[in-house]
Design a protein that fits this description.
Layout lengths: L9 E2 L2 E2 L2 H36 L3 H23 L13 H15 L1 H20 L6 H10 L4 H26 L7 H24 L3 H5 L10 H14 E3 H4 L15 H10 L2 H13 L20 H6 L9 H7 L29 H13 L41 H21 L15 H12 L13 E5 L4 H28 L1 H23 L7 H11 L14 H26 L5 H28 L3 E6 L3
Antiparallel strand pairs: 1-2, 3-5, 4-5
Helix pairs in contact: 1-2, 1-4, 1-7, 2-3, 2-6, 3-4, 4-5, 6-7, 6-18, 7-18, 18-19, 18-21, 18-22, 19-20, 21-22
């Protein structure tokens, strides 16, 4: 398995080197995320200090709570997962060490996040110094892609810290009298910008996660055992289209579909190389030790009519008795007076290596066929002419008609079973609530059919009919250009969404909560309808959090969209309608005099238009290709 399996191998359709893959996929994004994390965390801490200095402890405590909230939720999620605890039941040294590590990460979560980013940067640089396919490169890439609980904290930070922090600071900035302390305003603007970028980074990375997960991608915060088991299961149960659709070998020994006649021919006469090696060995081995072998002598003169007519057989005047007397000695020892004339392809010629037993068998066969008369003696195109008395009643009765073999209708039976199997599979897939036991075919003759099917598989004359295989259709990861365009589109989308909601809350707070509540309930209804109530019960609590995420953006996470286009087109249309309605309300009915709100009005319209253009360009030209895996049959 390739160490960079799943990493995009091309940019805009052009293949790139492995070092470019590492730089574009690992090194540059990790450095960017590290810089964002440092600036965002520092800005939020400075905002907290400024609020305490300005006499606003309420805003300070809100800001500080939002900083700690992702770390607390991550700690609770890890501790409540049984798979992460040591296997031994009870409080021992391993359990105490595990709990101590998690508490230390909770308390010093900024240092843990910095260690995670620094570790990935180090191994990304280390991978650049190793050649492709080397052990050092594979080990470095494995270190880069290893799972860690810090990835869960980084994911939660986008929606539990960046999104509410952005709404809070924008509301504070839009209130009256906010612009008096310019130091606080500067830090707040930096925090808002970094929050936009952090959310856009996470949304871009997890945009179509479930479609990528079914074809190989793992959760970056899962345990090492879970990730390894997931990869092994995927390799064991599926195969790629290249390996599944590869052309099978047509060698008689490898392909059971080749008729037995060809296999017998190769085993009797051998291949061209075997015949040459046998001829060379016959030169070195004495004639007395060589075993007689039947040889088929075919040359170019056999297919040239003029040459075959002009060529005379040196043995044409010999009778069978003369030949038996002539070749009564050992084979290949009789000299024909130096005659080197080659036999024609139309007449029967006997070489010196023909054995006496073969000549006697031919003589017996010719003497036993007394009914055939009138052999051809001229050079006509027909080898045999119609004998006299051809329409006469034969002296001997015709042999009995051979009985039909047991497997002569094998092809028809295989085709019939294939049609029945495809029809049953189609009905099971398309028709809901079938009667119980409708397609159960168990009967006393089932064992005999299985045995017959086993024999049919080894039959060399069986035909290979195409069968329908179950496939898994997923999605490849985005390349560098696709991620850049998608990232820009989500930045513009979030800018439009956050500014529209913040300004609407300033003028109409009651309508704001009504709009958000209705949007939240609608998202819950869409999620429940999408999963069709077939998911586990514990996931329903996560769906409440997922609906909260859908207030700001849309990403395929924890549930796979059946109708992807309807989801994205409907969601973007709904958000645009909400933003336009709120914009029209506060712009026409709100009381404001500052030029700042006019600037926000134009910014909302421009960012919304740019986001739609980016999404359309990405969907039309840069979206990743589908990845198809075939399910291996047991």
């Amino acid at each position: 398995m390739d160490a960079l399996d799943g990493v995009p191998r091309s940019v805009l359709g052009y293949p790139v080197k492995t070092r470019t893959q590492i730089v574009a996929t690992f090194l540059v994004p990790v450095i960017f995320e590290l810089m964002l994390y440092i600036v965002l965390t520092t800005a939020d801490i400075l905002i907290t200090v400024e609020h305490f200095r300005n006499g606003a402890p309420t805003w300070a405590w809100f800001t500080l709570t939002l900083i700690w909230l992702p770390a607390v939720v991550c700690f609770c999620s890890i501790v409540s997962t049984p798979e992460r605890w040591p296997e031994r039941i009870g409080f021992d040294e391993r359990t105490g060490r595990f709990l101590f590590n998690q508490v230390a990460i909770l308390v010093f979560f900024p240092l843990a996040a910095l260690y995670r980013f620094s570790r990935r940067i180090f191994w990304s640089v280390e991978a650049l110094f190793h050649d492709k396919g080397s052990y050092g490169r594979a080990q470095a890439v494995a270190k880069i892609t290893e799972t860690s609980p810090c990835e869960l904290y980084h994911f939660l930070q986008a929606f539990l810290q960046a999104a509410p922090q952005m709404m809070l600071q924008l509301y504070i900035l839009l209130r009256d009298g906010t612009f008096r302390n310019y130091d606080t305003v500067t830090v707040q603007v930096i925090s808002v910008v970094c929050s936009f970028l952090t959310m856009a980074t996470i949304i871009t990375g997890y945009q179509r996660f479930e479609s990528q997960k079914i074809v190989g991608r793992c959760y970056p915060w899962s345990t090492a055992e879970q990730a390894t088991q997931r990869r092994k299961q995927l390799l064991r149960s599926t195969s790629t289209a290249v390996s599944a659709l590869a052309t099978p070998s047509i060698a008689p020994e490898a392909d059971p579909i080749v008729p037995n006649i060809m296999r017998n021919f190769y085993s009797r006469y051998g291949s061209e190389g075997e015949r040459e090696s046998t001829a060379n060995e016959r030169v070195a081995v004495p004639a007395a030790e060589q075993s007689p072998r039947k040889t088929l002598n075919v040359g170019a003169f056999n297919f040239d009519r003029q040459q075959s007519k002009a060529h005379q057989d040196p043995y044409v005047n010999f009778t069978d008795d003369d030949k038996l007397q002539e070749f009564s000695g050992p084979p290949d020892t009789v000299d024909r007076g130096g005659s080197k004339a080659r036999p024609s392809g139309r007449s029967v010629s006997f070489k010196l290596r023909d054995t006496v037993e073969e000549l006697q068998a031919m003589d017996h066969y010719l003497r036993s066929t007394e009914d055939v008369r009138g052999y051809a003696t001229d050079d006509s195109d027909d080898e045999y002419l119609k004998p006299d008395g051809f329409d006469a009643v034969p002296k001997r009765p015709a042999p009995p008609t051979p009985e039909a073999a047991a497997g002569m209708f094998h092809r028809v039976s295989v085709f019939r079973h294939m049609l029945l199997f495809n029809a049953e599979a189609f009905i099971k897939e398309k028709v809901p609530r079938l009667p119980e036991g409708m397609f159960e075919h168990a009967n006393p003759r089932e064992g005999s059919r299985k045995a017959q099917g086993t024999d049919d598989q080894t039959d060399g004359d069986a035909i290979s009919l195409p069968s329908r295989r179950q496939t898994i259709v997923g999605l490849e990861q985005d390349d560098m250009v696709g991620k850049a365009v998608l990232f820009l589109g989500w930045v513009m989308f979030l800018l439009m969404r956050m500014l529209a909601l913040s300004t609407f809350y300033v003028f109409f707070p009651l309508y704001f909560w009504m709009l958000v509540a209705n949007h939240y309930l609608l998202m819950i209804a869409c999620i429940v309808y999408e999963v069709r109530l077939h998911e586990k019960l514990e996931r329903y609590f996560f769906y409440l959090f997922l609906a909260y995420m859908y207030v700001f953006s849309l990403l395929e996470f924890k549930i796979r969209f059946v109708h992807v286009r309807w989801w994205y087109v409907g969601y973007i249309a709904l958000v645009l309608a909400e933003n336009v309605a709120s914009l029209v309300l506060w712009y026409n009915l709100g009381a404001f005099e500052s030029w700042w709100f006019y600037f926000l009005h134009h910014t909302i319209v421009a960012s919304g238009s740019l986001s739609v253009l980016c999404f359309l360009f990405y969907y039309a030209f840069l979206r990743p290709k589908d990845k198809v895996l075939f399910v291996n049959e047991d």
